[in-house]
Structures are given as structure tokens and as C-alpha cells.
Amino acid sequence: MKLIGAHLSPYVRKVATILTIKGISYEPEVVIPGMMPDDFIEISPLLKIPVLVDGEVTLPDSSVICEYLNEKYPEPATMPSDVAERARARFLEEYGDTRLLEYMSVPFIENVVKPGLRNEQPDEDRVRRVVHEMLPGALDYLESQVPAQGFLFGDFSTADIALVSPTINAGLGGYTVDAGRWPRYAGFVERVKAFPPVVAVLQAEQEAMGSLLG
């Protein structure tokens, strides 16, 4: 099995975490957004990462990949068994993949990608505007959704990593969730980061990207 994408992509991290939970060995193949080979569109029509190659099956889109993995390799499950909870998990995964990532990506892009990969100066005003004006509403919502203890649906699910993976990137860019204002979400982030499969994935990222991460 092959997982194609960039090491620090929140979407790639989500899939890598699910693969690790399920004990599935995979070969990472690095493809960086904006530097994709000409034929990448043949396996990812939207030109997005990650892409999973499993024998004759080639799948783009992290959510589609995670659902495929959970159906093909059902144990351990990474989505709730209850229909209503599974629907809620899918929405929370989507929220993490879209709105949360939209905001949390800004500190990472400005403070890590621009100086580290593009040799550009960060836009500090953009970071301040997003962190102080846009992100708080998203964190208010997540504060109302995450549990005070444990994970969203008891056992670790795809939704758990989806709601934390963007925040991990923001942390690399110097952002820290205010535990005084959002204590439930801040605690939730730390629990997800301490979950052994996530620890393993983050360690692999550190080893692969050590020079960029410092």
C-alpha cells in the first residue's frame, strides 16, 4: 500500500493515523502541493493530496480514503457503530477538514512554509487577523462539541484526528490554544496528540522534516 502526499499535510496525517491504528503497513511517497508531477491529475483529478494506492485501487481525498480503510479493514473500527453518531462524526470530520483547517493553516503557512520553503517574509497582520477575529468562533463551536475527557465517541475515531490535525500545524507555526478560554478543546488536543498512533505519526513527520521543523 502506498500513501502519496506531503508529510505535514493535515489530510495526509489523518490517513496515516488511521493506517497506523489499523496496523496497516504503507509506503509514503512525497508529493508536495504546487510541485506535483504533470501526470498527478490522472490519480487525483482535483490535484489534492493524499492519494492512496492499494493494489488495483487508487483513491484521492482523505475522507474517502478513511472510509474505504474502515470498510475494508473494519477492526479496529475508526468510526462509531451507531448510525446517528456516525453521521455526526462525518460532519465533525468535515468541519475539521474545512473551516478549522482554513484558519489553523494560516500560522503554519505564514510562519513555517513561507520562511522555510519559499524564502518569503510572513504576513504577521494576516496571522493576527485570523487568530483574533476569525478563529475564536470556530473554537467556541468546538468547545461545545468535544468531551471533557476521552474522545468524541468513546473509541478513537477519524473525527478525533480531523479536529486536531489542523491545530497541530498551527502549533508548528507558533499558535497555542488558550486553555483558559477553551479548556475542553485544549485538553482534547493534548489527548489526541498523546494517543500512541498519533505519537508514532508525528515522530515520523519529525524525522522526515527535521530541518524545517528545527
TrEMBL record:
Keyword Chloroplast attributed: no
GO biological process, one term: L-phenylalanine catabolic process
Keyword Transferase assigned: yes
A family per Pfam: GST_N_3
GO molecular function, one term: maleylacetoacetate isomerase activity
GST N-terminal domain location: 3-76
Keywords: Transferase
Name the record gives this protein: Glutathione S-transferase family protein
Naturally occurring in which organism (per UniProt): Pseudohalioglobus sediminis
Lineage: Bacteria, Pseudomonadati, Pseudomonadota, Gammaproteobacteria, Cellvibrionales
